[in-house]
Amino acid sequence: xxxxxxxxxxxxxxxxxxxxxxxxxxxxxxxxxxxxxxxxxxxxxxxxxxxxxxxxxxxxxxxxxxxxxxxxxxxxxxxxxxxxxxxxxxxxxxxxxxxxxxxxxxxxxxxxxxxxxxxxxxxxxxxxxxxxxxxxxxxxxxxxxxxxxxxxxxxxxxxxxxxxxxxxxxxxxxxxxxxxxxxxxxxxxxxxxxxxxxxxx
Length: 201
Fold this sequence. Notes:
The protein is an all-alpha fold. The chain has six helices and no strands.
């Protein structure tokens, strides 16, 4: 069962990253530096954005399950698993309540989207920061321990910078730092999932 979860996690995270790249290559009309990633959820390619979030959410759920149920895999704390399981919950809220585009009047849907997005970022970084020390010296993860550590640092720096970029004068670069956070954390999830497959093979 653990191998099934691990394989689903790899497929889900790889699928998300593939769709993420596709959204940046398609003529969406959004700029990767100025616009938030959630803006893709409004407009012509909203369906692709939703599929990306679904793929990532399923991947994270499967990864959490794989780390939780398989004997012989690294032990992660209950709190860390809770963080992982809560990420997809926040994604449901993000999908149910689309964001408001920059310059539009802030709606109830937009406000709720921001709340769920903030929660998703907080849970994501908490999981990455908490689990990295547990994995980087163990089994299949030891060979990529330094890489996981670098991704955690990139995620932290990106998170700090995107919070700073909420200042009105810096909003033009918010999208850049948000993408740095999303890429680093989802690469972290994909790497951990691939190593879980290796560990169980």
